[in-house]
Amino acid sequence: MSLKIVLVSILVAATTAHPEGGHPSPTYSAPSPSYSAPSHPSPSYSAPSHPSPSYSAPSHSASSQPAASYSAPAPAPSRPSYSSSSQQYPDSPARYQEDWNVADQDSGNNYGQEEARDGYDTQGSYYVNLPDGRLQKVTYYVNGESGYVAEVTYEGEAQYPEYQPTQSYKPAPAQAYKSAPAPSYQAPPAQAGYQ
């Protein structure tokens, strides 16, 4: 325990002691500025030099050139004016008739449409072959306030053929492996002097 007291007191003494002769205390001073102002030549400006303008009246002789004459410009073309009274379109009801169809036996496509209109009375039909083999036909009409009235009919019997899976690929042909051919070489002829 006494050893501990001695060590602690040495430590306290070492931390509180001021070095008097062993180490000089550090001193710091700010550096003094050492620069000079930049030197620039003083600006000097002079007025630009331009030749002085000189004008003289043109000289014309009365016999060589005719007197100048000017006339007023032509008036600009007037813009067309549009008024509702100049073009009247009668309010007549539409009237048309059209039809079209596609019949391709190779692909099985068969569809089309026909329509006729006379004023507010419109009537027509369209048809299409369905995938089950039936023909779907829609007949419609529109008359004034009645709106679109359609009747859908089917012609033919739906066909659902039995599913027949088909092979979508061909297997690779079987490889026929043959044994390696026997070597077909002959020993070289013996030469004189070699044994």
Give an account of the 3D structure.
The chain is mainly beta and 195 residues long. The chain has one helix at residues 2-16; strands at residues 95-104, 109-118, 121-129, 135-143, 148-155. The protein has a five-stranded antiparallel beta sheet with strand order 1-2-3-4-5, with no helix packed on it. β3 (121-129) and β4 (135-143) form a beta hairpin. It is extended and about 120 Å long.
Q: Give the biggest sheet.
A: 5 strands, antiparallel
Low-confidence segments, given as residue ranges, are none
In DSSP terms (H or I, runs of 4 or more residues), the helix count works out at 1
Assign an overall shape.
Answer: extended
Distance between the termini: 107 Å
Quick recap:
The protein has one helix at residues 2-16, and strands spanning 95-104, 109-118, 121-129, 135-143, 148-155. With 195 residues, the protein is mainly beta.
Characteristic key phrases:
195 residues, mainly beta, 5-stranded antiparallel beta sheet, 1 helix, Pro-resilin, Insect_cuticle, Insect_Cuticle_Struc_Prot
Helix and strand topology:
Elements: H1 2-16, E1 95-104, E2 109-118, E3 121-129, E4 135-143, E5 148-155
Antiparallel strand pairs: 1-2, 2-3, 3-4, 4-5
